[in-house]
Amino acid sequence: MSRFWDEHRLQAYEGVSVPGYPNFFTVFGPYGYVGSSYFALIETQAHHIIRCLKRARRTGATRIEVTEEANARYFAEVMRRRHRQVFWQDSCRLANSYYFDKNGDVPLRPTTTVEAYWRSRRFDLGDYRISS
Predict the structure, then answer these.
(1) Is residue 24 a contact partner of residue 130, using CB atoms and an 8 Å limit?
(2) What top-tier enzyme class does this entry carry (predicted)?
(3) Among 29, 41, 79, which Cα is nearest to 21's?
(4) φ and ψ at 66, to 5 degrees?
(5) What total of structural domains would you count in the chain?
(6) Is the confidence at residue 21, as pLDDT, over 90?
(7) pLDDT digits (tens, 9 = 90+) for 58-103
(8) Is residue 6 a contact partner of residue 53, using CB atoms and an 8 Å limit?
């Protein structure tokens, strides 16, 4: 995964899944945490993961992996919306902060907690490739 992130920057679909890593889910992935409540993060990400696992179980699948297209779409949305974050305001423009990674990105989710919660319950399960 380190190689993937070195080559493609930090990214994970909804902060949970990385393409090329089937059956792997993370709770604190890049662009998953809104920056408010850690407990809200755990609940939101766990709900996303449970939806995936339930779908796999219902279909008898043994492998589930986010598609590259879904991940690219989410990452593009994050990049488009990130300028609304406080880190991208003029007051933080010259800050030397540990929030910025080596690419100058802030891998926090540029949404509200409510939106993250909603999306964990409504994301398209078709964004995952499911197989046996």
Answers:
(1) no
(2) oxidoreductase
(3) 29
(4) -65, 145
(5) 1
(6) yes
(7) 999 999 999 999 999 999 999 999 887 776 665 565 667 777 788 8
(8) no
Residue 31 makes CB contacts below 8 A (sequence gap 6+) with 10, 11, 12, 14, 15, 74, 75, 78, 107, 108, 109, 110
Please say whether the beta carbons of 111 and 34 come within 8 A.
yes
Tokens of 50: 């449970």
Three-state DSSP class for residue 69: helix
Identity (one letter) of the amino acid at 122?
A: R
Q: Which residues lie closer than 8 Å to 123 by C-beta, 6 or more apart?
A: 14, 48, 51
Gap between the Cα atoms of 63 and 46, Å rounded? 18
Angular region, 20: left φ>0, alpha ψ -120 to 50, beta rest = left
What is the residue whose two structure tokens read 């890593």?
21
- β partners of residue 130: 64
CATH of the domain at 82: 3.50.50.60
> What is the residue range of 17's domain?
2-131
